[in-house]
Specification:
311 residues; alpha/beta; Rossmann fold; 10-stranded mixed sheet; two-stranded antiparallel ribbon; 9 helices
Length: 311
Amino acid sequence: MVVAAGCGLAQARHLGTVEELNEPCNGGVGQIPNTVCKTVRVTCPGIKPLAAQVRITEPAAGVAYRGTVVVGSGGNGGGFYAGPPGGRELVEDIAGMGFRVVDRAWAGGWPTMEGGMVPESCRYATLLTWVHDHIHKGGKFVATGNSGGSAEISYALTTWDRGDILDVAIPTSGPPLGRLDYACVTKASAEWAAECAGIVPKGVMECPSGCILGPNNGVCKQVSANPTQEQLLNDSVMHPGAVLNYPSTKVYFLYGAHDCGEPVPIGLTYATKVTSERKIRFVPHTPHALFSTAEGRAAIEKAIREGTEGQ
């Protein structure tokens, strides 16, 4: 068993452990050449162990090695980023840039209704640390994820001090869990309605943004079936005590200009508060699944190049 040591300084939270399992991956290695798959079990304090499949794609032959990029699918993270065609194409492109690509899929998804997104996000932070310590072989260490995958990265930064290991973080289309107390309601509060109206820069969106998710989504019920506003705030990426400065990490927030839901304004409640080096960009003609368009894939690749230049 491998211990992923570390703790959130402000929150005194401890990471868990990762155990490699001698079991085959259910879906095999996928369709991308030069890929292997490992099965692991991630155990975090106070919540049940959760298995994951980890596909590792080696850099393209004949290309200078540049580091590792960890990618994360959206929703509950139960699928691979490279499952949809756009995601698969992007993983192949990143490998062609000279990066080892690590793609995770959680068995049943990482939110498990065991006390909230904050404790459950330990799973990703622990797995990310294990990848850094045991699969990453030098060069730059990069993570990108879409929607729910962007939330995993964001919690890793605000809650688990994973800015200590990440050179570049690229949350795309979120994090939609930036302020759950704003999102998980039937009607926006006066405070959030006013902020939501102005938080998205003028002229960057191709459709109006929503401001709320509604109270019935599963992410709103991780703490309890009927959470209070205080519980929702404490379970957000932007919980009280969230770490917002990452001296060692360049952060790029990417949003589709045709993402018409609440992830853009809710994501900006976090993105606009980061005090270290960060950039916020809006990608034309691109919906919530940022990797699904050529423009979205190009924006992610540009962020990787910019963030890792000078290596």
